[in-house]
Amino acid sequence: MTFTVAIVGRPNVGKSTLFNRLIGKRLALVDDQPGVTRDRREGEAFLFGLRFKVIDTAGLEEAFDQSLEARMRQQTEQAVSEADLVLMLIDARVGVMPIDEHFAKFLRKGKTPIALMANKCEGKVGDIGLMEAYSLGLGEPIPFSAEHGLGSSDLYDIIKEHMEKAAEDKVVASPYIPPANLEAEEEEIPATQDDSEDHDFLDDDDFEEEDEEIVRGPLQLAIVGRPNVGKSTLVNKLLGEERLLTGPEAGITRDAISVEWEYQGRPIKLVDTAGLRRKSKIMDKVEKLSASDTIRALKFAQVVILVLDSDGILEKQDLTIARTVIDEGRALIIAVNKWDACPNKDEVMQLVRDRLQTSLPQVKGIPVVTISALKGQNLNKMLDAVFNIYEIWNRRIPTSGLNRWLSELLEIHPPPAPGGRRIKLKYITQARARPPTFAISCSLPEDLPASYSRFIENNLRDTFDLPGVPIRLHMKKGDNPYAGKKKRNN
């Protein structure tokens, strides 16, 4: 079991800044506005060779009703109960507030060890707050600056001490990594074998996509959609616990929260994202940060589930999100939520098919699944569709089969000859998968009509059974083998 550290404190004391520093990435949203963080976010932290799990939490609020603040407090309490060590932050520049005293009393009642950190101690401004921190009864406070990293060595000593103490009572997975190992080079991954031959017309510089990834690790599955369509409810139902905040309020989720999960023995990383609205309607700075975080999560996903509300099917914003997913080369599944409350099921399904056909003609066969996230209906069917389209997204087609297909296609439907110049399509190979990407050697690629390229793509999709995933087709003019060579003298 991994050693877990939870970061708690009242709003706007620097919890997310400390979380980002420990994990070495700017994952958690940070802003001067209080209460930016709502869900608890987990990450793998590294500190001078120590490796542990860290949990960023919402600001502690004294609320015990059914409000959003009360639900945020419950999430924080859950994080404290799961942690092996709690880091309680106060703002040393402001000093100890009554709410700090209240939650220090709450933490003292628990069994989880506590380390008190006086954040924002850079300079002399925080000296008074540092002295006041002793009054909380949580031991000697650690002067710290999450923004600048001051006091990191003291934090290292505290965490290492509690790790060693916890290791005496339970087995902790990899509690310490010697610093020398941090400089070791990563193990070299062997290149993927391909049955295609090397051809001069294939050049990696001609493709904007990244090199093909090795298929390994958990499936990256992002849940996206407009606000209040049931994304967090869907994730909670899949996990079987109230892991994410839900409620009638629109726009509860702000951070893109990833959760490790397993379905039928297959590992999945579920990513819940903030709802996306039109850019013209986004005025709040935090919402802009949330939208950027959602787009970032979408780019790193492999399969994306676009959740729709059965009351508002494929509106303009839904189609914008779908196009973004396709443009990024991700596999897309559409989940129509709240299906149990839909009165006109046949009309809604026909509307979905019509809009997909007219607005997303470049990707035919996008899977559409009707679900109820609240009642858990059809979730297995949705996940089966996820793994099916993931397999298509990863599919590689032998070069020999591709060229037989191209030869037969050209015999029946040869390319046009604009201006009387004949265009030759010589050779095709699959340059990459994820998504399926093909390169064709073409004598005059600049003259080939876009309509004929679409015809090739559609025929390729139908022949090799590639429904629902984006296909990238590149026309490349083959290099002249005699270019640059001097003529021989007779």
Number of helices: 13
CATH class descriptor name of the largest domain: Alpha Beta
Task: Extract low-pLDDT stretches.
Answer: 176-215
Strand content: 15-25%
Q: How is the main sheet built? A: 6 strands, mixed
| Overall CATH architecture of the largest domain | 3-Layer(aba) Sandwich
CATH fold-level topology of the largest domain: Rossmann fold
SSE sequence, one letter per element: EHEEHEHEHEHHEHEEHEHEHEHHEEHE
Q: What is the assigned CATH homologous superfamily of the largest domain?
A: P-loop containing nucleotide triphosphate hydrolases
What is the helix fraction of residues, given as a range? Answer: 25-40%
**How many domains make up the 3D coordinates?**
3
Our Rg estimate from Cα atoms comes to 28 Å
Number of strands: 15
Mean pLDDT across all residues, rounded? 80
Return the structural class: alpha/beta
Neighbour order of strands in the largest sheet: 2-3-1-4-5-6
Shape: elongated
What is the end-to-end distance?
80 Å
Could you characterize what this model shows?
- GTPase that plays an essential role in the late steps of ribosome biogenesis.
- This is GTPase Der.
- It holds the Pfam family MMR_HSR1.
- The chain has 490 residues and is α/β, with parallel strands linked by helices.
- The chain has 3 domains: 4-181, P-loop containing nucleotide triphosphate hydrolases (Rossmann fold); 219-393, P-loop containing nucleotide triphosphate hydrolases (Rossmann fold, 3-Layer(aba) Sandwich); 396-476, K homology (KH) domain (GMP Synthetase, Chain A, domain 3, 2-Layer Sandwich).
- 32% of the residues lie in helices and 19% in strands.
- It contains 13 helices and 15 strands.
- The chain has helices at 15-23, 68-82, 98-109, 127-132, 152-169, 179-182, 231-239, 285-300, 316-327, 345-359, 379-393, 399-412, 450-463; strands spanning 4-8, 41-47, 50-56, 85-91, 114-119, 142-143, 219-225, 257-263, 266-272, 303-309, 331-337, 368-370, 425-432, 437-442, 472-476.
- It has a 6-stranded mixed sheet, with helices on both faces.
- Strand 10 (303-309), helix 9 (316-327) and strand 11 (331-337) form a beta-alpha-beta unit.
- The chain is elongated.
